[in-house]
Amino acid sequence: MKTLLLAGAALVASPLAARAQDAPSQPALAPSEMGPPAPAPESALRYSPDLPGGTPADIAEASRAGTPVDALPQALRLAYWTSPTVLAQRAALRGIDYRVPQARAAFGPRLDYQVGYDITRSGLRKPGNGWSDNTTRSLTTTAVLTQPIFTFGRNAASERYALAQLGYQRQVMRSAEQQALLDAIGAYVGLLRDRAAVAIARDNLATLEQELSDNRARLKRREVTSTDVEQVETRVELGRAQVFTAQRDAAAGEATFLRMIGAPAGALAAPNPLRLPADSLEAAYAYAEGHNPVLIAAQEREKISRASLESTKADLMPRVDLKGQADYVNGWNVQSLFGAIPRRDQRDFSGQVVLSGPIYESGLRQARVGEAIAANDSDWRLIDAALRENRATLAAAWDDWKALGAAVDRYASAVESARRAYDGALLQEKAGLRTTLDVLDLARELLLARGNYNSAMASAYIAQARVLAAMGALEQTWLLPGEPRYDPDDHFDKVKHRGDVPLLTPLLRGIDGLPLGSASARALRDPAAPRTAAPVELDAVKELPVP
Questions:
Q1: By the 8 A CB rule, do 418 and 156 touch?
Q2: Dist. CA 267–CA 69, nearest whole Å
Q3: Hey, which residues does 333 pair with through a beta bridge?
Q4: Which helix (H) or strand (E) element contains residue 324?
Q5: Which of 282, 366, 272 is CA-nearest to residue 317?
Q6: Which alpha helices (H) appear in 221-315, and where do they start and end?
């Protein structure tokens, strides 16, 4: 199959190139006749977000300067590093990173204080005497130190819950990155297709205008009738309308390009060929199970509800804590306006090992356990649902890619046949063997074949990108090997041990995690999980070119 070069010369070469040398040139359409006005200058289209630290310097500079994009790798890098949706998900992930040290902090000690200033005034009245006032004032300071010893898995389950939330959010971020790259590919290839469609429409209009000029000359020689000329004039007006429509689509494609990539489009080069990490649909299924972010996110979601279930079960058990308390009281008693007892100071220190737990709560905690079991079972089932959906999506994208790839060659052959038929009809028209209507019909078939060929090439390329996305391979590391990538571990490694107490936190984590089961991914329950869908068999299907 021919390489998918959407801006190839075959799409825009005029079928009247041979005639144009002998025929007088026709005036181009006036600017007022060519549809919408020219796009705004680049400075008006420039989009320059405030990029976070870690963005490559060349990407940040290109974003600030609004440098036009000329190649697909440049577009992919811009989308990967500057997409607002992706940047938002990365920021959200950094926020989730802090939930892990929050959970780990529960293994360490906690020190609280309380300071109170009390004033108590009382009066005593004796027979024959007036009121005697007594005022007591005290300043109380209390410090309480609490150190969990063993919570039967409560704290360990909280840490697992935070780690599962982190894993889920990472897959959400990966999904956003892959969607941004898919949108960038679609915008890039779509704009190439729309620009080529404008060239095809203009080429068709030039063909029809040349035919109109020839028929008007033949009408003067009485070789054709006025009806023939009017038929050509009808097709010319339709051709002009098609140019306007193509220009509208191209203008929309320019706007989509700017939205998806964040920079205006320049003289776009042909896109780089894509490659797949699998050579069959079954291999693609196996690859997706370990790489597709939606499938992995479903597994992480099940881990979240499983950790919640473990925490709820642990609430049924007692817990052991070590508590220490220090109290300091400073007070004095004023008996009258001019007399006072000297100040009193008191301090107390206490330490205790506390075993606490529920006795009876009318079934409240048992009901919570039942709810958590049902929620975890639901998430477990959703893993199977995500797998079924992914396989259906992957199979549809795979078959679509194969079918479109096979159709490209057929459309290319159809374009060549339609071009030869049109050129032959022109010669036959001059010899009186073809009517004007025959020539116009063949010109329309040539236009249709070229338009279908242009659309099929773009659709085949985008379909292959969808296959990569369904597999979970539409990533920076696969599309642009060797390029820098955003590593979420950089931030996580900086914050995950904040608040840890050396030796104490690892020891208590190990002890508290003993009652819990494994945190690994669970096996599938769906009986249809091992089954695979048979790909559509196509005769002589050729793969898209790969490097």
A1: no
A2: 8
A3: 136
A4: strand 319-334
A5: 366
A6: 226-261, 281-291, 293-314
What secondary structure letter does DSSP report for 279?
Answer: S
pLDDT digits (tens, 9 = 90+) for 80-107: 999 999 999 999 999 999 999 999 999 9
pLDDT, residue 170, reads: 95
Cα 433 from chain centre:
59
| 275 neighbors 546 (Cβ within 8 angstroms) | yes
**One-letter amino acid of 419:** R
**What's 115-128 look like in SS3?**
EEEEEEEEEEECCC
CA distance 274 to 464: 7
Spatial CA neighbour of 148 closest among 117, 190, 104, 114: 104
- The answer to whether 33 touches 440, Cβ cutoff 8 Å, is no
392: its two tokens: 């259906």
Contact 311, 151 (CB under 8 A): no
482: left (phi over 0), alpha (psi -120 to 50) or beta: left
What's the confidence (pLDDT) of residue 444?
A: 85
Q: What is the pTM of this model?
A: 0.80
**42, amino acid identity:** E
pLDDT at 341: 56
C-alpha 538/C-alpha 1 separation (Å) is: 14
Torsion of CA 312, 313, 315, 316, to 10 degrees: 140
Contact between 298 and 383 under an 8 Å Cβ cutoff? The reply is yes
Q: Phi and psi for 329 in degrees, rounded to 5?
A: -120, 130
Residue 273 forms beta bridges with which residues?
A: none
Question: Quick one: DSSP state of residue 523?
Answer: P
147 SS3 class: strand
Residue numbers of the chain with a pLDDT score lower than 50: 1-38, 40, 42-45, 47-48, 336-338, 535-547
Q: What is the pLDDT of residues 151-179, one digit of tens each?
A: 999 999 999 999 999 999 999 999 999 99
